[in-house]
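Sanity check

After download, print the first record. It should look like this:
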Amino acid sequence: MALGIPAFPFTFVVHVLGIAGIIMVLVWNIHFRGGLAWESSNKNLIFNIHPVLMLIGLIIIGGEAIISYKSLPFSKEVKKLIHLILHAIALILGIVGICAAFKNHNESGIANLYSLHSWLGIGVIVLYGIQWIFGFVIFFYPGGTPGIRRESLPWHVLFGLLVYVLAVGTASLGFLEKLTFLESSGIAKYGSEAFLVNFTALVAILFGAFVVLSAISEGPASPQDDYAPI
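Expected C-alpha cells:
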C-alpha cells in the first residue's frame, strides 16, 4: 500500500501545517475567545479547551503518530514505540477535550449529544481507543504471533487511516458548528475571527490530506525494514 514516491516532501508539509494549526487554534481561543480554564465563572473558557485539545491532540499529534514510520530514520522497533506513545497522547488529549465540552454544557445548562458533530465525535474517540488497544495487544504487548501480526497489519493501517479521516471530518464539522453559533451571536461574518476559524479548519483538512499521502508513500529505509518481526 504505497505510492512508490518518497514520503519526505509530504511529511515536511505535514510538520509545517501542524505548527500553523497549533498557532491558529491557540490565537483563536486565547486572543479572540478569552483564554482557557478548567474552572471559571465564564463557561466559554471551559469550552475553549475542547477545540484546542481536539485539534492539537487527535488531529495533529495523531497525524504525527501515523507518519512516524515515514518521517523518522530510526529502527522499526523505535518507530513503533514512538507511534504507540504519540497515539496514546493523542487519545488522552482527545478524551480530556471531550470532557471539557461535556463540562461546559453541564455547567451552562446546555443539552449534550444533540448534533451530528457530537455523535461523530463520540464514535471517533471510541474507535480511536479500540484501534490503540488492538495495536498495543497485537504489535506491542503481549504481541501476536508473526503470522497474526503480518495478517493484521494491512487492516490495522487501513482502519487507522479511516478513523483518522473520520476524525478530520468531525473536526471540520465542529469548526462549522462553532462558527455558526458565533455568527448567530453577533460576530461579523467577514470579520477576522470568522476568517481565522475557517482557515484553521482548512489547515486541519490539508494537514489530514498530507498525513494520508505520507502514510501511503515510501518511507526511509531502516535497519529492520520488514514487517515480519512486528
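If your output differs, re-run the checksum step. Summary of this record's structure: The radius of gyration is 19 Å.
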